[in-house]
Amino acid sequence: MTYPLRWLLSLAFIVQMYAAMVVLAIVYAIPAMISRSGAWAGVHAYCRWVRLSARVMVGLRSEIRGEVPEGEVLIASKHQSFFDIILICSVVARPKFIMKKELKWAPILGWYALRIGCIPVDRGKKGRAIAEMKRAVAEGARVPGQLIIYPQGTRVAPGVPMPYKVGTGLLYQQVGQTCIPAATNVGVFWPRHGIYRKPGLAVVEFLPPIPPGKPVGDFMAELERVVETASDRLMAEAGFVARA
């Protein structure tokens, strides 16, 4: 298949993906208003649809590896594009994210995010953002589920180095929960920006748990090591070669 045709199929996929978001948001609106379970059902339906349509329309298959987290745990995941959010939310029972504050104003997405217990944080405040995040997490603890945070704070393209932020370690210390690291290679196929979606196998892999109680510095070092090592392995498996 030629590149122009694949690009057009990618465009069609993106258009239908957002159209499906609107349709399913309407379908699940009343259940979501009645209970959080209804909101989570809508999120799961949408994420599974995106995975299916990606496979059919652009040849982008997807796979979850490792044991899917259950119960009250902290998930610390590599973040490369919107698709790793989709993969995690398609299988985790009650996902709720630490998200940038601006997203709560996004049409449809913002309302559902708040409904399932996502925690908006103003990333521009730096030190103050950590205190705000810890306070918001304490307030949001009454909403059961799996709390997901991106230790690098944003989407990071494959092969681009970016430090891990200590806020994840402070959150790990605060909640006193097991942390499940997660690695991914989705950025190889679904970039942070642009239209084109490459065919292949996108993977999110849940890694062995890190038990609670470790010193923050030790926890952060272990988290970065296991997530980066596993993500590099998955990207190499997908054919990605980092530039020297």
Describe the model.
By secondary structure, this protein is of the alpha/beta class. The chain has a single domain (61-237), classed as Glycerol-3-phosphate (1)-acyltransferase (3-Layer(aba) Sandwich). Helices cover 48% and strands 15% of the residues. The chain has eight helices and seven strands; from the N terminus they run H-H-H-E-E-H-E-H-E-H-E-H-E-E-H. The chain has helices at 3-27, 29-34, 36-58, 82-91, 109-115, 127-140, 167-175, 216-237; strands at 60-65, 74-77, 95-100, 119-121, 146-149, 179-184, 200-206. It has a seven-stranded mixed sheet with strand order 1-7-6-2-5-3-4, sandwiched between helices. Helix 5 links the parallel strand 3 (95-100) and strand 4 (119-121). Helix 1 packs antiparallel against helix 3 (36-58). The longest helix is centred in the first third of the chain and has 25 residues, at 3-27. The radius of gyration is 18 Å and the shape is globular. The chain starts with a helix and ends in a 7-residue tail after the last helix. The relative contact order is 0.16.
Relevant terms:
244 residues, alpha/beta, Glycerol-3-phosphate (1)-acyltransferase, 8 helices, 15% strand
Q: Spans with pLDDT under 50 lasting ≥5 residues?
A: none
Could you name the CATH topology? Glycerol-3-phosphate (1)-acyltransferase
- The radius of gyration is 18 Å
What composes the largest sheet?
7 strands, mixed
Could you tell me the strand content as a percent range?
A: 5-15%
